[in-house]
Amino acid sequence: MTFIARYCALVDPTTGQINTLVYPPNADEYLEGEILNGSIIKWCENDGITCQSHYYNHTTSEFVERGAQPSQFYYWDWDHKTWVNDIHALFAGIRVHRNGLLMECDWTQLADSPITDEDKANWALYRDQLRHFPEWNSGATDWDSLVWPVPPNLWGQE
Hints:
The protein contains two helices and eight strands, in the order E-E-E-E-E-E-E-E-H-H. By secondary structure, the protein is of the alpha+beta class. The strands form three sheets. It has a four-stranded antiparallel beta sheet with strand order 2-1-4-3, with no helix packed on it.
């Protein structure tokens, strides 16, 4: 005889979001369809369902896998049950990364920097490219499609 672990999903009655999973010792404590703390009780088999990877489809009465988050710049739209590209978060991430790259090479523009005038000019060009990077990539929708400027110390190595 094979034992199948059963558990309850406490599901948001509007969105289908799984708020928590419960393994009750006594199945009679949780009745299918009852409301508990604002969530609907739905029984399911132990088949890899998690709060983060699934939702409950109230129309079809089944648990549905959401699929992997395409990148950190996507959020789950509970109304449409799909991943949505968060362009504002993408460009916030671009600016944070760009600012970090600028800070890493601030020293190249100091008056007492131990580099040649030509190197200083090359670093100034690179820094200008970084400053304009968000503007030049305003149509970007995906981090992986971005092509960042190459710092002068790596020129010829790409």
